[in-house]
User: Which sequence fits this backbone?
């Protein structure tokens, strides 16, 4: 179940996560790519050809109007990923590859 927003092409799911309507692409995912790689809207479209520039610009407009909230969410996700990496320990596969001198 999704809910419309004031932004064309942008809906929120039952958890309040902003998505591009008709896709499973989260606004936050585009923002992370834009930030991490320095991509423009056109670059994002090259990477996601199933999205129109209108959808991408709408997602970015949504981000800029909700940047503080989404930036906190990005930070929370990064902290969780780092915590999972730390607690997971060494990968058995990586250890086998190292033992064989393959990495």
Assistant:
């Amino acid at each position: 179940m999704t809910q419309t927003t004031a932004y064309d092409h942008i809906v929120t799911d039952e958890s309040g996560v902003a998505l591009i309507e008709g896709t499973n692409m989260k606004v936050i995912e585009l923002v992370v790519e834009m930030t991490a790689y320095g991509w423009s809207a056109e670059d994002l479209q090259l990477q996601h050809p199933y999205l129109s520039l209108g959808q991408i610009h709408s997602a970015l407009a949504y981000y800029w109007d909700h940047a503080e909230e989404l930036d906190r969410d990005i930070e929370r996700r990064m902290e969780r990923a780092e915590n999972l990496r730390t607690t997971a320990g060494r990968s058995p596969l990586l250890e086998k590859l190292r033992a064989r001198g393959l990495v």
Observations:
- Residues 3-99 form a domain with the Arc Repressor Mutant, subunit A fold (CATH 1.10.10.10).
- The mean pLDDT is 94.
- The longest strand covers residues 10-12.
